[in-house]
Design brief:
Shape: extended
Oligomer: single chain
Largest sheet: none
Order of helices and strands: HHHH
Strand content: under 5%
Length: about 150
Amino acid sequence: MLEKNLSNNCYIYIPRGIEQGVCHLNNVAISLLEGFIKLKEKILRNVLSCKLFTGNYPLLLEHIIREAKLYYCYVAMLQNGQNITMDDKKQVELFGNQIMMEHALFIRGLLDPTEEELITTANDFAQEYKKLLEQARKMTAQGRAN
């Protein structure tokens, strides 16, 4: 609520040409993201069809693709002058919980098997994020029903 009530009464001077520079930067980012996403999707397809070996889990590749697609979506929205809605923010919270759960699982999978305490800690974090994810999904579903 405090964030919602924040206001900016300051005048900010934006130098001439800065908008065009930001627009150009966004276009470059969009183009790079498109190529990056296509590359990662190709790598994932090849890994899943046993045409390519990597030390990365397929879930990690999917994880990276989802992060890149979300970033692409936001840059494209900003570039097109679209506002980020409350529903978008809720989806980001769900996305964030999913991503953090996966981070904990990846960490767990990279630990030395003798690091039992760290493995337990990573697993506990993953379980907590899984619960948060389930709670957030329920709340989102309830919000849509109302």
